[in-house]
Specification:
This protein has 27 helices and 22 strands. By secondary structure, the protein is of the alpha/beta class. α12 packs parallel to α13, α15 crosses α23 and α25 packs across α27.
């Protein structure tokens, strides 16, 4: 079964849904009543795979996670959780009130329904969904759909407290505050039950052993002398022990039991290392059998690399590897990156350690075969960089849609970060907002349909469409273009027959509305004209008069624009071929919408509009579009002209939203299904063109980035060593360049040239000597940034 909705009332920051209660169309459900009045629950829909909870500080995000856990397990209910501005918060005897939590379940399997039927007297024998509401620790009410009503069953007492613990999906958490330790004792790995966790810190053991050695230097020769020396011995060892004889836990050298367990999960659980072999490794190190110990370590590292497969998840560095290195009594975790350099954890960022922690906890999780599971995670972005957060989305996706035959796990997580928003699935976003006064926390509806507007307040910044978040940016004229492109991208992504080239990855491509065609050059300057690092950019323009003018401006042979954008990265809709459309007839993106679909979307918008106006609804027909022959109009203008004849105005943004909504609501039985398919097929053709240019733009950007990095390093070196330099200084410069290179083809070409320089100028020999033919060396050094382009020309010439 899957969690479909969470209902909350009088819990923490959630009071009740006063806005729904005051709405003129409010129709109460059986569970909305309490006492003699109505207090509608606040409902938060939960996605069947992954749900992202966002909101400003203190908006109730963490409260939602706690509500899910308490609602499922029935444990942890406390009157301390009662909303303090609830009308029932009081201390009067006999009038106590508890927080109320409801859960709606669907996709109930036959086996789950059978188990629930056996445990719940009066429950139907077959059902696919049900609801349960806990209004106190000892009161649980069930609602089973029955035609237009609900069949109600109530259980009380201890049965209510313990109900469903073996049937309902099990909530669990990935701890976001536990990092993988830098090292772990071999003896603890082999037998954690008998090893004292305080000894896990290498620094602690070192200070303790130094104290013991100090005591041993003056060890008494007899028992009588020992009695006399006991006070001084005690004073030397005492700082490491408490009054009760337990080891003192010094904060700066403490290693938590949870961190140690994480290390054991990695080696014994994920890498599948036999604990007895760890004992053998410990004994081999103690006996000085280095050859055997090294062979064991090599085998462990191989199993670690194969079973953890870290580069699959950490895409920032495909050559990254996690290794173990023996150090006396410990295994030390080290990291080797694409430069081939090995680092300890203390030399790398906290983000890497915590990302490893999340990955280990997720991979070592033993998924239940008997019952479904729900992962709850609170602010996993706390320690992670923007790129690492994008990698974390892959871990969540593996929980929800595993590649193997293990059972999928629902994921619900809370975040403050725009980088953990999966824009390919905006329908998974739930925004919580803290209302004024007694309103409390409420859920914002239709976030993805409202141009991400609520997210701006939730994050405190304009996110989701900024030009500086994505790996590549697509400049479009207006917000309506953005809505149609992103909406069609999500719809095509849902189709099992769509390839990656036929949709847009909205986590990698940020669609940026400029406001108009004339504003695109300025937006281009903001993105690429001010900094040395220039993100890749494409521009998509209409083929109307203004779009032609701006496209011509951006494509002309002007160094100012050549520096900002390649002329073939300026796209125009009229230059692209589309299904069942004569080339050149598409002047703007709305022209890709088939007429019946456009009319349905326009009517939907106008119907919503007239609800708030003193006018009757109007229905446009296809005949209305051909009646105006006075001038040549595009599809949207024709629709708007027809609406104006009825004293209405068709808003372009509202129309775009209605088009996307019509596509979402369509299915195979819909009269518009063929028109929706035609529209999405046209968008796929557009996406293919955009994706082809995106890959080229990203390649160009990498070349620029690598070239700029090399150029800055080389110019700095030549400025400091204009006349000559020692080979040692020169090697330092080349080493700095090599360390900064990434794993792209462009960087590989530069690496080859670096090795050629070292060989041709004998830089590794007599490093204290000056470089010979220094002027020639400087020329070759300055040309490094162009090596990729030169090598590519050479390869193409050979072919």
């Amino acid at each position: 079964m899957k969690l479909k909705s969470v209902f909350i009332r009088f819990f923490k920051s959630f009071n009740f849904d006063s806005l729904r209660k005051s709405h003129q169309d409010f129709k109460p459900k059986p569970w909305d009543s309490y006492g003699a009045d109505l207090y509608p629950y606040i409902r938060i829909p939960i996605d069947s795979e992954i749900t992202t909870i966002v909101g400003a500080n203190e908006s109730g995000k963490s409260h939602l996670l706690r509500a899910i856990k308490k609602g499922i397990t029935g444990s942890g209910f406390s009157q301390r959780d009662l909303c303090r501005y609830s009308p029932f918060f009081n201390v009067e005897r006999g009038k106590e009130c508890w927080p109320h939590i409801g859960l709606e379940w669907n996709n109930v399997t036959d086996d789950e329904a059978h188990k629930l039927h056996d445990q719940l007297t009066g429950a139907p024998s077959q059902f696919g969904s049900f609801m349960m509401f806990r209004e106190s620790p000892e009161k649980l009410t069930f609602y089973f759909p029955k035609e237009e009503t609900f069949e109600t069953i109530e259980i009380l007492g201890q049965d209510a407290c313990e109900f469903g613990r073996e049937i309902l999906p099990q909530p669990f958490e990935i701890k976001s505050d536990v990092a993988l330790p830098s090292s772990v004792p071999l003896t603890w790995l082999a037998d954690p039950e008998t090893y004292r966790a305080a000894f896990a810190s290498r620094k602690f053991r070192s200070t303790l052993m130094n104290a013991v050695a100090d005591v041993a230097n003056g060890w008494p020769a007899s028992q009588q002398e020992f009695s006399t020396s006991a006070p001084s011995i005690f004073s030397k060892l005492n700082p490491h022990f408490r009054e009760d004889g337990e080891l003192r836990r010094v904060e700066e050298i403490e290693v938590s039991e949870t961190s140690l367990q994480l290390a054991r999960s990695l080696l014994v659980g994920i890498a599948n290392v036999d604990p007895s072999r760890l004992n053998e490794l410990s004994e081999a190190i103690a006996d000085g059998e280095d050859g055997y110990a090294n062979a064991l370590v090599k085998s462990i590292n191989l199993m670690l690399a194969n079973n953890l497969n870290f580069p699959k998840w950490w895409v920032q560095d495909r050559d990254f590897s996690l290794r173990i290195t023996p150090r006396e009594m410990d295994l030390v975790f080290t990291i080797q990156d694409r430069t081939g350099t090995e680092y300890t954890f203390g030399e790398r960022s906290s983000g890497l350690k915590y990302f490893l922690s999340y990955l280990i906890q997720s991979r070592s999780r033993q998924r239940s075969k008997e019952r479904a599971e729900i992962l709850l995670m609170d602010e996993p972005d706390a320690y992670l960089s923007a790129e690492a957060q994008q990698d974390l989305l892959k871990i969540f996706d593996d929980f929800a849609r595993p590649e193997t035959d293990v059972a999928p796990i629902q994921v619900v997580f809370v975040t403050h970060s725009p980088f953990l928003i999966d824009k390919n699935h905006a329908d998974r976003i739930r925004v919580l907002e803290k209302g004024k006064g007694l309103v409390g926390t409420r859920a914002i509806r239709d976030v993805s349909h409202n141009h991400y507007e609520p997210l701006r307040s939730a994050f405190g910044a304009f996110v989701g469409e900024t030009a500086f978040i994505g790996a590549c940016n697509l400049l479009v004229e207006g917000t309506a273009d953005q809505i149609l492109l992103s909406g069609a991208a999500r719809l095509t992504r849902l189709s099992p027959t769509s390839s990656e080239s036929e949709t847009l990855n909205l986590n990698r491509l940020v669609i940026v509305p400029a406001g108009s065609a004339s504003q695109i050059p300025y937006m281009l300057y903001l993105i690429r004209g001010r900094d040395s690092d220039k993100p890749p950019v494409l521009a998509l323009l209409d083929s109307d008069k203004e779009g032609d003018r701006v496209a011509k401006l951006m494509r002309k042979d002007d160094p100012k624009f050549r520096r900002l954008i390649r002329r073939d990265f300026v796209l125009q809709l009229g230059e692209i071929e589309f299904e069942k459309v004569k080339k050149g007839n598409v002047l703007e993106i709305e022209d890709l919408i088939p007429v019946p679909l456009a009319i349905a979307a326009a009517n939907q918008f106008l119907e919503e509009l007239t609800q708030y106006m003193d006018s009757s609804p109007c229905k446009l027909k296809e005949d209305d579009l051909v009646s105006d022959t006075s001038k040549e109009l595009q599809l949207f203008d024709k629709l708007n002209s027809a609406a104006k004849k009825r004293s209405l105005h068709l808003d372009k943004i509202g129309f775009a939203r209605s088009v996307v909504q019509q596509c979402k609501n369509s299915d195979n039985s819909s009269v518009l299904s063929d028109q929706v398919d035609l529209f999405l097929n046209r968008m796929r053709q557009l996406f293919k063109v955009i994706n082809k240019k995106r890959l080229e733009a990203e390649l160009d950007s990498r070349k620029e980035r690598v070239g700029s990095l090399v150029e800055r390093t080389v110019k700095g070196f030549i400025r400091d060593h204009s006349d000559n330099a020692t080979k040692e200084r020169t090697l330092d410069c080349l080493g700095n360049i090599e360390t900064a290179l990434d794993d792209t083809i462009e960087a590989d070409a530069i690496r080859v040239s670096l090795n050629t320089l070292k060989r041709d100028f004998h830089l590794d020999e007599n490093v204290h000597e000056f470089v010979r033919d220094y002027s020639v060396f400087k020329e070759k050094l300055l040309s490094l940034k162009d090596e990729y382009a030169l090598s590519k020309i050479g390869i193409e010439a050979q072919n």
